[in-house]
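User: Design a sequence. Structure:
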């Protein structure tokens, strides 16, 4: 139990360090110093900064996945509410989980280096499964084919991923804090008509 708490502490601290300085500019010395921990102790828990970084990204990913599972199970919310909340969860996750955002951005530029087991593709699969489940429920009465639902899933998933990236671009381009909520609202309204 003590080991798990220590690992959680390392992940929380490293998350901030990686978010601020990135993977390349972060060292095991930096992480150990932030924690006021000996480097040997840090190596006891993680063999490298890459291993810590992967644990940080996995932690952010797990939190995102838990939020989607909880939303999917909510029987009180309509499809429209779930779809809108999905965008809110996604935006919050990618705003708060800077390392997950960086993974998303890096994946676009380094697509040729990703293998099928990449956490980036796992992230896409989790989102697509969530969307497939809520769309299947939504279209139950209309008896949409699996192929039609798959097309909707792809469209929504690509829109959401693109929105995250373009929000970052617009932030830099206009030197303001963009608010993509209007785009979500318009998109959700179009989807539910």
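Assistant: Done.
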């Amino acid at each position: 139990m003590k080991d798990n708490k220590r690992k959680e502490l390392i992940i929380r601290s490293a998350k901030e360090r990686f978010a601020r300085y990135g993977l390349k500019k972060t060292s095991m010395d930096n992480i150990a110093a932030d924690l006021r921990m000996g480097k040997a102790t840090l190596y006891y828990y993680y063999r490298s900064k890459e291993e810590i970084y992967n644990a940080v990204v996995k932690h952010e990913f797990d939190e995102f996945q838990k939020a989607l599972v909880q939303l999917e199970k909510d029987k009180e919310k309509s499809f429209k509410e779930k779809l809108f909340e999905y965008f809110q969860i996604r935006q919050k996750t990618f705003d708060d989980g800077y390392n997950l955002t960086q993974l998303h951005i890096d994946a676009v530029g380094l697509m040729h280096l990703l293998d099928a087991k990449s956490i980036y593709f796992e992230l896409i699969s989790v989102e697509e499964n969530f969307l497939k489940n809520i769309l299947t429920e939504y279209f139950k009465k209309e008896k949409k084919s699996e192929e039609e639902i798959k097309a909707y899933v792809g469209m929504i998933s690509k829109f959401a991923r693109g929105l995250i990236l373009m929000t970052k671009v617009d932030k830099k381009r206009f030197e303001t804090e963009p608010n993509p909520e209007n785009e979500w609202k318009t998109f959700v309204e179009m989807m539910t008509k």
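The chain has two domains: 1-47, 56-191. The chain is about 80% helix and 0% strand.
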